[in-house]
């Protein structure tokens, strides 16, 4: 739950909103946040209508809301929007190279797809740091992203495929 | 891995290929609209107030303070339900909103609509419910003793009490309460229609069953409610029962505005049914060669507070209670108990999972007692063509190699024999720490680690059983396409079948391409304008809606012979039914109750740190008969995913209840397998076609969920020497020393 532990009087009192300006997938956006501690995930999805990052646990356990914050992967549910003033947020829309998406599609790494946006962002981050990761490194890097459908086998296939494609694309 | 499968281009993707899924691109670019992504102008947010008590009388509910909160549009209780007060998948026994008593923790008491979800949650906290707390009944055995059951189903064959066995093993087994844990939370939007009706955007496994339950409770004619499918973030049985549907509809009718509901994870754990926990007492008697003489079993499944699908789960548990083995004398008693625990219903495996853990553990115990190899004892007892299940149903498996003479074909022996050329993986030299139990926790460098290997066999019924009129409907319209389709024919396929992630949309397109010999297939949205497709459950949708699409395409193809598409579109609607089944006799359990049977065999290899009780599953090898491969990539994905859920039940997944209270309703406390928990999976897919099924297919989604659990536990037993009669196996089960 995200609401503060306040009584009805506090709930009805006028709340001062703070304006947070950030870049999301390359576009300048502003959100008037009137809840203390509102999460970046909530701001993106409920306030800005940007639903690429998914809400599946709001405890940082499932990784479905993984986004890049100034280039670093974070669970958007654990980041307060107020921390994001002037910062760069990249969701599945802006963070993921085409070969990573294509590899997920081609190798059958997508079933219900609810975990996919978060996984894609995590894979994009992994391949930027390690262009050709071994299985053990892939498993370590994606250990924070739960998938209930695939058993992860085809996700590992997809990471290798993406790595190979991107290696071939490099001069 | 089997031979790598190379996906073919979209245009070539008929049956047997792995074309790109039609939903894949939207799912990787963030554009796919899941139910929780939907938004409408002027939309309110709904929220549910749930009982904190497993059993209580409601003396009064004061909604006044909640209604007084600015931004709150409606607060509704049982008194506001417009029509029938109860709903249910099989029996309408669950209150829409608790009318005067609550029977499980999490039961819905009131619903709120407000400008924001935050506000709706705050309003819920202001509703004053005066509960008189009552003593809950939380022990399923006590409920059975008191005769409080949703169903009792015996099976009686021969005379097990006088049958003589050389070896007897008798043990009690327990299976914890597993959760489906689909990543997409329950969500939907109800939109009032100008005529006083409703459009409901829902993520469900069965649109028409939802409609049949929703309409009476709203007091509306079904024709005034239109259900359309929203994107589904996994299901696994959790979306068979209603969740947000009636509540958001009531709020939309009351406020005249669109109302969205979305559970958070904690509410999701309380807001859908779970896999039945089970307590089972099994006694197996075998002769000196390991051939089963008799099996006696008492199977108690905890159905929780309301009926859901417990009745059907009990039928599966009873009819499949000994697995795919020949037994002459059988006495099975299976109960579905009513308690004040969370309601239990459908989850992948559906009544087959619990008994599979028990009967496979028993087979291993017998093998141990007789000094037999675990695969050999299964071979000796394997059902073959012409044999009977304990229900009297004759195994009608067809020998794929009809020229072979000699013993009748045994589908199980066929699978078991494939392990001959699937060697157990060797222990690698110089293992990385992440490959050891405890992983990056750095708890061991190999000392105290023992390796074990075990097998599990699962037998699952495919499609609905016990005389249920199971059907699916498909409409196919073929017309000449425009320039965007290069002027080629285009098939429009309309069904209500739920794409829960399994790839069913893809299969429909594949079937239409194959049957009509065309490239372009457009799927119309799944909604209640189509006829019922039945549920995306029981591994049935390829068989049933696949069968319906195939039949409709065949009809269109026939008409096309005599007509020119330039003269106008050709359309056909077909309803597909599988062969009829019969109910189980209420006294003997006899009856041809199942449509199709599917087998899967797993071998698990584990490393166990016997000092710390940590388990690392290092390999899962699976041999499964799928009839015919319709889509290699999707099929492998089903086997991988089903296997993973079985691993979860084996070593980590359990909803803990204490006196009816759920103690771990979060992904912090309810663990599902991560990518570090899953080992590499090797698959050997066998195609013994079923001549009765479309394309010879055999439902494939559930069987791996049955067999992987007992295989993993058998491997842990092999490593530790412990009896391990309960899943999930926890570290304390491996480290608490018994007096020797």
Q: What would your notes on this structure say?
A:
The complex is a heterodimer of chains A (171) and B (740). Chain A has 171 residues and is an alpha+beta fold. Chain A has seven helices and five strands, in the order αββαβββααααα. Chain A folds into two domains: 16-93, Ubiquitin-like (UB roll); 96-169, [2Fe-2S]-binding domain (DNA polymerase, domain 1), CATH 1.10.150.120. Chain A has helices at 8-12, 40-47, 92-95, 98-106, 116-129, 135-141, 153-169; strands at residues 18-24, 27-33, 66-69, 72-75, 88-90. In chain A, strands 2-1-5-3-4 form a five-stranded mixed sheet, sandwiched between helices. In chain A, β1 and β2 (27-33) form a beta hairpin. The radius of gyration of chain A is 18 Å and the shape is elongated. The model of chain A is unreliable at 1-13 (pLDDT under 50). Chain B is of the alpha+beta class and 740 residues long. Chain B has four domains: 44-135 and 186-262, Aldehyde Oxidoreductase, domain 3 (Alpha-Beta Complex); 140-176 and 274-355, 2-Layer Sandwich (Aldehyde Oxidoreductase, domain 4); 410-463 and 588-735, Aldehyde Oxidoreductase, domain 4; 471-577, Aldehyde oxidase/xanthine dehydrogenase, molybdopterin binding domain (Aldehyde Oxidoreductase, domain 4). In chain B, 24% of the residues lie in helices and 25% in strands. Chain B has a seven-stranded mixed sheet with strand order 3-7-1-14-11-12-13, sandwiched between helices. Chain B has a six-stranded mixed sheet with strand order 9-17-16-15-10-28. In chain B, strands 18-23-24-27 form a four-stranded mixed sheet, sandwiched between helices. In chain B, α14 (632-651) crosses α15 (703-720). Chain B is globular. At the A-B interface, α1, α4, α5, α6 and α7 of A face α1, α3 and α14 of B.
């Amino acid at each position: 739950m995200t609401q503060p532990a306040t009584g009805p009087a506090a709930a009805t009192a006028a709340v001062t909103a703070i304006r947070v300006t950030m870049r999301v997938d390359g576009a300048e956006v502003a959100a008037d946040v009137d809840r203390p501690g509102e999460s970046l995930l909530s701001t993106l999805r409920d306030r800005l209508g940007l639903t690429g990052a998914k809400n599946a646990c709001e405890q940082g356990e499932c990784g479905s809301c993984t986004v890049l914050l100034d280039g670093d992967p974070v669970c958007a549910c654990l980041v307060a929007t107020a921390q994001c003033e002037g910062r760069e947020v990249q969701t599945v829309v802006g963070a993921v190279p085409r070969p990573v998406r294509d590899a997920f599609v081609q190798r059958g790494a997508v079933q219900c797809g609810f975990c996919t946006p978060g996984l894609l962002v995590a894979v994009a981050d992994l391949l930027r740091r390690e262009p050709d990761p071994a299985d053990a490194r892939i498993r370590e890097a994606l250990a924070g992203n739960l998938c209930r459908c695939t058993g992860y086998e085809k996700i590992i296939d997809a990471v290798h495929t993406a790595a190979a494609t991107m290696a071939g694309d490099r001069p | 891995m089997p031979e790598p499968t190379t996906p073919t281009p979209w245009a070539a993707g008929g049956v047997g290929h792995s074309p790109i899924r039609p939903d894949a691109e939207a799912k990787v670019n963030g554009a796919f609209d899941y139910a929780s992504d939907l938004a409408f102008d002027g939309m309110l947010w709904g929220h549910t107030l749930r009982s904190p008590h497993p059993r209580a009388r409601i003396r009064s509910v004061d909604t006044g303070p909640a209604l007084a909160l600015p931004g709150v549009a409606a607060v509704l209780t049982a008194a506001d339900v417009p029509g029938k007060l109860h709903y249910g998948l099989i029996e309408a026994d669950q209150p829409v909103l608790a009318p005067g008593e609550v029977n499980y923790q999490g039961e819905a008491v009131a619903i709120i609509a407000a400008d924001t979800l935050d506000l709706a949650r705050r309003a819920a906290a202001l509703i004053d419910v005066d509960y008189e707390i009552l003593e809950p009944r939380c022990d399923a055995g006590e409920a059975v003793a008191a005769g409080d059951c949703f169903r009792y189903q015996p099976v009686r064959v021969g005379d097990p009490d006088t049958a003589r066995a050389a070896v007897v093993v008798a043990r009690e087994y327990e299976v914890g309460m597993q959760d489906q844990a689909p990543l997409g939370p329950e969500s939907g939007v109800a939109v009032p229609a100008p005529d006083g009706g409703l459009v409901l955007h829902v993520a469900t496994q069965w649109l028409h069953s939802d409609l049949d339950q929703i309409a009476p409770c709203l007091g509306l004619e079904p024709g005034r409610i239109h259900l359309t499918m929203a994107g589904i973030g996994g299901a696994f049985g959790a979306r068979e029962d209603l969740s947000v549907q009636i509540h958001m509809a009531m709020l939309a009718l009351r406020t005249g505005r669109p109302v969205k509901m979305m559970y958070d994870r904690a509410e999701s754990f309380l807001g859908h049914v779970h896999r039945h926990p089970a307590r089972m007492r099994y006694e197996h008697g075998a002769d000196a060669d390991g051939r089963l003489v008799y099996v006696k079993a008492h199977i108690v499944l905890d159905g929780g507070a309301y009926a859901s699908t417990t009745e059907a789960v009990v039928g599966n548990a009873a009819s499949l209670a000994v697995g795919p083995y020949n037994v002459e004398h059988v006495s099975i008693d299976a109960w579905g108990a009513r308690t004040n625990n969370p309601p239990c219903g459908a989850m992948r495996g559906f009544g087959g999972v619990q008994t599979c853990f028990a009967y496979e553990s028993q087979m291993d115990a017998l093998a141990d007692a007789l000094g037999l190899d675990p695969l050999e004892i299964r071979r000796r007892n394997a059902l073959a063509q012409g044999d009977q299940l304990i229900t009297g149903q004759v195994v009608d498996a067809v020998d794929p190699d009809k020229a072979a003479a000699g013993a009748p074909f045994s589908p199980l022996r066929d699978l078991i024999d494939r392990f001959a050329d699937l060697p157990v993986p060797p222990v690698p030299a110089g293992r990385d720490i992440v490959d050891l139990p405890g992983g990056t926790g750095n708890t061991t460098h190999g000392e105290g680690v023992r390796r074990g290997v075990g097998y599990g066999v699962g037998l699952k019924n495919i499609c609905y059983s016990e005389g249920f009129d199971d059907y699916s409907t498909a409409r196919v319209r073929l017309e000449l396409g425009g320039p965007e389709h290069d002027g080629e024919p285009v098939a429009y396929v309309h069904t209500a079948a739920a794409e829960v992630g399994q790839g069913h949309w893809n299969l429909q397109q594949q079937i239409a391409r194959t049957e009509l010999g065309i490239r372009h297939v457009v799927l119309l949205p799944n909604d209640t304008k189509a006829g019922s497709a039945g549920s995306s459950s029981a591994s049935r949708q390829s068989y049933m809606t696949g069968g319906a699409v195939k039949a409709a395409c065949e009809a269109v193809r026939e008409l096309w012979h005599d007509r020119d598409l330039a003269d106008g579109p050709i359309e056909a609607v077909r309803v597909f039914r599988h062969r009829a089944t019969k109910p189980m006799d209420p006294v003997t359990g006899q009856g041809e109750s199942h449509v199709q049977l599917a087998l899967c065999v797993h071998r698990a290899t584990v490393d166990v740190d016997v000092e710390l009780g940590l388990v690392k599953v290092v390999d899962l090898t699976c041999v499964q008969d799928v009839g015919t491969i319709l889509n290699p990539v999707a099929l492998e994905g089903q086997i991988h995913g089903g296997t993973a859920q079985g691993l979860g039940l084996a070593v980590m997944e359990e909803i803990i209840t204490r006196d009816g209270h759920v103690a771990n309703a979060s992904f912090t406390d309810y663990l599902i397998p991560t990518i570090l928990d899953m080992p590499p999976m090797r698959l050997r897919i066998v195609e013994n076609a079923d001549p009765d099924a479309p394309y010879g297919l055999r439902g494939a989604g559930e069987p791996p969920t049955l067999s992987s659990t007992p295989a993993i536990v058998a491997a842990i037993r092999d490593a530790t020497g412990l009896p391990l009669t309960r899943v999930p196996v926890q570290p304390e089960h491996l480290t608490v020393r018994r007096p020797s």
